Amino acid sequence: MAAEAAWVIAIIALMAFIVAVIALAVTLNIFSAQQQTLELQRKQFEEQQGQARREQAAKVSFFVDVGDDRQFQLKVINASDYPILGVIAVLQPRTPNAAAVALAPNLLPTGATPYTMTWRPSVLPLSFGGLNTEHAVTFQAELWFQDSHGAYWRRNTYGELAELTDVERKQLDHLVADRHPGLN
Fold first, then answer.
1. Does residue 63 have a pLDDT over 60?
2. Share above pLDDT 70 across residues of the chain, in percent, rounded to a whole number
């Protein structure tokens, strides 16, 4: 009888151990599934935020036009619902020592009406000028700006839009600080 009781206790202990292992496996499986779900939700949230940021930046464009005085003008259109900040035009091809040829450190308004940015004549190339000059150039620039979400963007004359790299962001901060001490 004692031997039979020992066998019963051993079988019950073995069954309890098996149930505990199964419960642990199920718990780990549930935990893993929850982690995967949270990671997927985080990625979806980041994608939605990125898409929202890109939607605003996609509605910012610029072009070079000729004014009534037959001089080149840089026109920026912010067709988004939110203002943009720190708008700078940089000559192409861009270099590590790029100069801001036009700068608007204030908020640029929204709307379909183009905002005319003022050139900085001291940094324009010698060949740059009005259409009356012998050496009128085909002007190419990139527009760098900060959107209302705090993301920094660049758009080139071909319409390509990309987020600024860390190096370009530092360069943008430097260009704004050079032109307007105390702003950054």
1. yes
2. 83
Q: Which residue has the tokens 């204030």?
A: 106
Of the candidates 117, 60, 114, 96, which has an alpha carbon nearest to the alpha carbon of residue 175? 96
Side chain identity at residue 34, one-letter code: Q
Side-chain-side CA neighbours of 182 within 13 Å: the count stands at 0
Cα separation values, 24 from 8, 15, 27, 68, Å: 24, 14, 5, 79
Pairing of β 72-78 and β 60-66: antiparallel
If DSSP codes are grouped into helix, strand and coil, which group holds residue 104?
Answer: strand
**Phi, psi dihedrals of residue 125, rounded to the nearest 5°:** -65, 155
What mean pLDDT value characterizes the chain? 80
Can you name the residues that pair with 103 across neighbouring β-strands? 88
On the question of pLDDT at 78 being above 80, the answer is yes
CA pair distance 160, 143, nearest whole angstrom: 10
Pair of tokens at residue 29: 């499986």
Query: What share of the chain in percent tops pLDDT 90?
Result: 22
Q: Does a cis peptide bond (omega within 30 degrees of 0) precede residue 83?
A: no
Three-state secondary-structure class, residue 77: strand
